[in-house]
Each structure stands twice: as C-alpha cells, then as structure tokens.
Task: structure prediction
Amino acid sequence: MKYKIEDESDLIRIDKYLIDKLDVSRSNAQDMIKQKLILVNNKEIKKNYVLKINDEIEVLGNLKKETSVLPEKMDLDIIYEDDDVIVINKPSGVVVHPANGHYTNTLVNGLLAHTNSLSGVNGSVRPGIVHRIDKDTSGLLVVAKNDKAHEALAKQLKDKTLSRVYIALVYGVINHDTGEIDAPISRDDNDRKKMAIKEEGKDAITHFRVLERYKNASLIECKLETGRTHQIRVHMKYINHPIVNDPVYSGRKLIDKDFGQMLHAKEISFIHPRTNKKMTFSCDVPERFKEIVDIFKNE
Result:
C-alpha cells in the first residue's frame, strides 16, 4: 500500500499517521517502523519522523506478529452480490475487521467463510474492506471481491462519488429543516479512542435534514461529504444534538447498553467497477432502532 501526503492536516509524526490510516495502536505502528515495514520516500525512518507535503509512504507488509484471521460461519445479510462487489447490511454490534482485541466474530471472519474471492489491497486482516462503519452502527457497506474493484471503489471514496446516507436519532429538537456541519476532525488529545473537533484536523462535512421532530429528540437523515472516523457522532455532539444511546459522545444515560448508538447507514450509491452503471441500495433500520424511536414518539 502506498500513500502520498497532500493535506496539511497530515503533517504529523509518522507513527500518529499510521494509527489513523491503518487503524492500529501506537505500539503496533512503532513496531511496524522498527521491523522496517514502513518506508518514506523509499527510505527507512524513525518513529518520530514528521511528515512533509509530497512525502510518499509505502507499507511493505503486516506485522510479523500479526494474528491470522480465520473464516467463521456467520449469518450475513447480503443485499447484493456479483463477481466484483458485495453489498452487505451489517448489524449493530459487529466489528467490521479485526483489530486489537477483536480477531474473531468480525464481519471479515464471516466474509472469509462466505467467499474465497476478496480483494487483497488492504492486506490479510482487512480483505475486501473498502470503507468501514462503527461497531455499534448498523447498515450498508460495499465490499470488493478483487483488487480492480477495490481500487475503483476507493477512488470513488476519494473523489466523493461514492454516496452514503444515514438515519440518526439525536437528542433535542432541531428547529431548522436542513443544515451543514463543516468542522475539522482529529484524534482527541486526551483519549486516542475518541475523535474531536480541532482546527488542525482533517476537513469534515456532514449535511443533514430533519425527518421528524419529537418532544425531546429529532429523527434526521445525514449525508456524508467526507468520511472521517466517528464523523456524524462527533458533528452532532458539536452542535449540541448528540446521537441517542451513543456510549462515547452523548454524555447521557444509555437507553439500551446492548444496542449502541442510534445511527444506521440506510443507503449507499456507487458506480459499478465493471459495468460503470450507477447502483443504489437501501435497507430499513433495525427493529430495535424502531422501538427506541417509538419511546421518544410516545413521550
């Protein structure tokens, strides 16, 4: 894998960059550098190297101590599948790909049991994974079954032609019908598992419109213009309308500690990598999502 530094928000230490880009821990990032798996401009670097504009980063491989990912039989809600892509409806509570502390029962484990054809662009731990949604967010994502499809879909993500629409239940009544949140996002300085609005962060833009208003909450539709980690969750907290049942960002008592935040990836649109035809898929929110919405409707 290769990356080129083109954004000023990426002018940070190489180990911090790897944490965000590869979704690894700081120790894993530093181990990759020690094991000479990371090159910058075709040269070995130290963990404190600060990236510069036009630097080219090459990831030569995975950590030698990396745990292998095994196939696991899993009930997958596949919305569409052909020789190039799989569109899948991920339930709340399922991690998309293995990472520290989650090497079993992930979506990737289930996909490996489902098919032998998954792209290898992101290595053996994230085969086929073009983009993610959070563990406790439900809904649609597209998986690539070969490298050519993966590269085409990744380009659409970068070019913002791969469209994603979410449904969210947020605290408070939003009085205006539509809105745009334009606030840069970066890692929280005090908690590396959280994200925060920071001036030096990466550009992040979320569009939303109100679908229904209740006494103490609003049901909204969100469309991502960018795809930062925890973007909708952080943006809604930023405008003082945090997502209901969000264990990290809401600051409120959880309604259902086993369900997760009230956020669902309802729709995804992309250009098929082989046919070049636009494809759009949608799926309804989970039943538990509807039940929690009804709690607010009936207040």
In short: The helical segments are 14-22, 26-34, 107-114, 147-159, 231-238, 287-297. The chain is about 20% helix and 25% strand. The longest strand covers residues 163-171.
